[in-house]
Amino acid sequence: MIGLITRRLLQLPLIVGVIYTLTLTLAWAVPGNPIDNPEGRRPPAAVVEAMLRQYNLDSFPRFYLSYLDNATGTKWVRDQVTGRAAERAAAAAEVGQAVPIRRVFDLGPSLQYEDWGVNQIIQDALPVSIALGAMAMLIAVIIGVGAGVVGAVRPNSVADISTLAVALIGISLPSFVVGTTLLLVFSVWLGWFPVGQWGLRGAVLPAITLSLPFAAYIARLTRMGMLEHLGADFIRTARAKGLPESRVVLKHALKNAFLPVLSYMGPATAMAMTGSFVVERVFTVPGIGQHFVNAVLNKDLFLIMGVVLVYSTMLILFNLTVDVLYRWVDPRIE
Amino acid sequence: MGRLFVPIGLLAAIVIAIIATDRPSPRADFTFINRGDVATLDVQKASWMQDLRVIRMLFEGLVKNDVLDSDYTILPGVAERWEISEDGLTYTFHLRADAFWNVHGKPVAVTAHDFAYAWRRGILPDTASDYAGQFHLIRGGRAFYDWRTQQLDEIAAMPSGAARSDRARALWALTELKFNEMVGIRAVDDRTFRVELERPTAYFLDLCAFAVFYPVYPPLVRQYELPDPATGRLDQQPGWTMAETIVCNGPFRLDSWRFKREVRLEKNALYWDRDSIAIDSVSIPSNEDPNAQVLAFKSGAIDWVSDVSTPYRRFIVADKLAYYAEHREQYEELLAQGLDPVEIDRRLPPDPRQNIHTFPAFGTYFLNFNCLPKLVDGRDNPFADPRIRRAFAMSVDKERIATKVRGTGERIANTLIPRNSIAGYESPAGLPYDPDAARKLLAEAGYPGGRGFITVEILFNKDAGHDLIAQAAAKDWQENLGVPVLLAQKEIKVFRNDLKNQNFMISRAGWFGDYGDPTTFLDLNRCDDGNNDRKYCSPRYEELMDRAASETDPAKRMAILADAERLVVEEDLPFIPIFQYVQVYLFDPHKVSGISSHPRQQQDLFRIDMLGDGKGSDIPRGLPPGGGDVKRKPPEQQSAKPAEQSIRSRLRPPDLMICRSANVLLSRAAIGGRA
User: Fold this and answer.
1) Mutation site for A-interface testing, chosen from B54, B259, B507 by largest number of A Cβ within 10 Å
2) Minimal CA–CA distance to A314: which of A132, A127, A138?
3) Which residues have a Cβ under 8 Å from the Cβ of B111 and sit 6 or more positions away?
């Protein structure tokens, strides 16, 4: 186990480095000027040039290295060691100014939202996406496992076929259709949930929308697993012992049928947590999914790189956690 | 079995830990969806309409416009009165004693020095203000900008070393000295602020009402500005605009600003005119999905949707027209009284369709011609010939585009400046739709029946129905002129790049005015204007614009400007005006009052009064009868004597010019989604 953890942690910088290089190369190739607003008055050419220089946006290698330097914290460490940080603080004190805040991992300014740093943006948006993803997975497991068990206990019954049909719809319908419909019915007509407000109540509808495709897949997985195990010898033994049917199904069969679901939950949770641009937009969830798309459209290089770096690091750590957890739940796996 | 539940328990724990601690804020007195998320609240850097709208609530300038007045009269702001010298060059503002900064609950007087500091920020190239150019009207503003830019360039070109860093270190002190020496901005004492202009500028007071000319609180902002010892550049850190730090002097203060979530404002208890404010709190939730915006309004969570941009908005507008048709007699009677359109709605029988409002906006949709002699690919550009441009302009059926393609109540435009939007300005007629005359012109230019004409390409970006407008224009040119037309749809960034590099023949475009003077539109056609994508450059036009600039008689000046516009919309046609933009709003007229229907479309939300909430007078606020279009009045003569007015007297700028701080940007509403 410890070997696994160390190995993965050592791989981490390498993987993130490759992702960083690929993303920056692609993002750099996007046509257009990151300083430009997509619409609006153009600043004078001299101003644009000066800004490009200030942010190292005029040279790929310089940007590549300086951003990495700031984001990984090496610059911060170097400034502390060489005393440049102290020098700056002294310069500020000399003219009676507050010492500028320098972050350890400085992901840079946002070119689109001028008042905000990328650190702040991610700090605000990431917890929202994590909570929404977790809630969606929770709902997906409850609906999916429930539907799967019902279907497996009475295969080809009305209940089985209808859960199957619902699952199919869940997978096929795009989330903007489901989302808008839910919003219309439950928020506008029935008034049960607020519109466009984040919070416990505001999170329910987006979480359900986000969960449906996962729920459908989990239902299929559970049903298959259950059918396989319900015909197995150990179930016959359990029944022969005279155990009540509910105990046979829920304790003996489900325990085994749940394992494939658990292994699916790892990547699925990660996927749910990367946030869905569509769901976030329809329900105006202030999550991180929108930045993946908007930052690229705006060519907001700092935001693109910041989001990608934080996310890839998080996903690698997350996958590691799932693997560790999986081994702990089912010690048979090595 | 127990271990199986651990992952599920973990998920539940995450949900509870994050969501349960994140409580939504209570309902505000007035909740509205802005046309986009606020990018910056930095007064001198802002340029988006949504940013300026919030800034006008948080800060107050020397003067402001009365948006609920058909003349957009100038009202006193921080300045209680002012004098204009006889030559129209020197403005002396007298600041009121009860204008305060709300320094976290403590009142600190707003002084003339604060204005001088803020305006210097606006001029400095280091700030990179989109509106830096507006400050060039002030004596020495341009020269100072150029001097500082040159100094910074020289330092940047020096090899790094002791000499360079010494010079960089010394630059800031020198800059402060130079500013005081070169620029005509002077804080005479704490309450007297004097500005000298390069030349008499009739709309200068209106510019002072523009948000970029608002003050900032120097003790705060200075902490975020540090001359970089290596380059001499003033390193401006963001952060002072956050709710915890910001210091405001306007009708509201910033209570909280959660990124992409909500901006929340509370009434400023230290504001001098606080008694006129009829709402205590304003909430601006972030909501970028056009459909969700409409649904949020329908659920009752939102009082005003400031920019309805759903694909089905034309059907919403059609609903409103159907409603008027049902009550035709009563409606026409009210209309004849010249009532504000919102007031008309209040007097008609209640109906949910009343919540839809369409107002003409201060902007025009047009198609650009590339006027250069050669295209980017080296071919000869037929559109360098004004006859061909005129022929193309006269063969577009604008009526069909306005009614069939757009269908949200747009009026067709034959001029660049929206008709009747600027008092004292008489718009030229422009060219009519006349395919026969167009064919003749084309034949005259050497292409009878369109024979031999190169394949025309229309460049546009792939949003907001530009494709449909391009298709309609293409069909007209093919049928009326017999020329082959191709549509070139591009991604917005590519589109912008092509525009900038003149890599197009014809492209879609639009422009919104900033202030109440024809030059806010006409400057677009100056040879060296940064937004002249057409590369139109006419000595005659330059001469007219220069003459207008030096003309001191307001009426004569307006006439010269009208001549200049006549040149571009009747003879040279560097663009084809198509229609005047409209603004589609959703709000309940029986609940919300104070939203202006004036064609300038600036909304000052501190004027909002929610009807029936027991706060404020609860008497509907709106344009007086006869509003809507600006009244046509001959401009008054500039007074020879210095005009001195008492507090609260409604001052009128010398030539009735009205200004507004609308933003320059091609509005998202009208053109459609950003991106």
Assistant:
1) B259
2) A127
3) B95, B187, B190, B191
Whether B672 has a pLDDT exceeding 70, the answer reads no
Q: What is the mean pLDDT of residues B636-652?
A: 33
Q: Output the DSSP codes for B543-562.
A: HHHHHHHH---HHHHHHHHH
Identify which of B627, B670, B610, B625 has the alpha carbon closest to the alpha carbon of residue B304.
B610
| Closest CA–CA distance from residue B509 to any residue of chain A (Å) | 10
For residue B20, is pLDDT > 90? no
Helix A200-230 with A175-182: angle, nearest 10 deg: 120
Q: Return the pLDDT at A46.
A: 65
Distance CA B433, CA B396 (A): 7
Q: Which residue matches tokens 């960034």?
A: B493
* HEC sequence for B272-304: CCHHHCCCCEEEEECCCCHHHHHHHHHCCCCCE
A33, A329 contact by CB (below 8 A): no
In chain A, the residue whose alpha carbon lies closest to the alpha carbon of B225 is A97
> Would the pLDDT of B671 be above 70?
no
Q: Are A125 and A110 in contact (CB under 8 A)?
A: no
Cβ-based neighbour number of residue B517 at 10 Å: 26
Residue B196 token pair: 């000298």
Parts of chain A with a pLDDT under 50 = none
- Strand, helix or coil at B505? coil
Cα–Cα distance, B205 to B65 (Å, whole number):
9
How far apart CA A276 and CA A34 sit, in angstroms, is 24
CB proximity B170 to A under 8 Å: no
C-alpha span between B4 and A326 (Å, rounded): 9
Query: B-contacting residues of A 159-188, CB under 8 Å?
Result: 180, 183-184, 187-188
Residues of A in contact with B19 (CB under 8 A): 131, 135, 199-200, 203
Question: B597-630, pLDDT tens digit by residue?
Answer: 888 888 899 999 998 888 878 888 888 776 544 4
Residue B527: pLDDT band with limits 50, 70, 90: confident
Q: What is the bridge-based pairing of β-strands B100-103 and B575-587?
A: unpaired
Residue B476 or residue A1, greater confidence: B476
Are B226 and A95 within 8 A, CB to CB? Answer: yes
Helix, strand, or coil (residue B20): coil
* B571, B390 contact by CB (below 8 A): yes
Residues of A in contact with B258 (CB under 8 A): 124, 286
Quote ipTM for the complex: 0.77
What is the pTM (predicted TM-score) of this model? 0.82
Amino acid at B642: P
Question: Around Cβ B24, how many Cβ atoms within 10 Å?
Answer: 15
Q: Output the pLDDT for position A175.
A: 84
pLDDT digit string (tens) for B129-188?
A: 778 878 988 999 999 999 998 888 888 888 877 888 888 888 888 999 999 999 999 999
Q: What are phi and psi of A144, to 5 degrees?
A: -65, -50
Q: Cα–Cα distance between A171 and A161 in angstroms, integer?
A: 15
Per residue, what are the HEC states of B36-48?
Answer: CCCCCCCCCCCCC
B260, A125: Cβ pair inside 8 Å? yes
Residues 213-252, chain A: which have Cβ within 8 Å of B?
Answer: 251
CA separation for the pair B15, B13 (Å, rounded) = 5
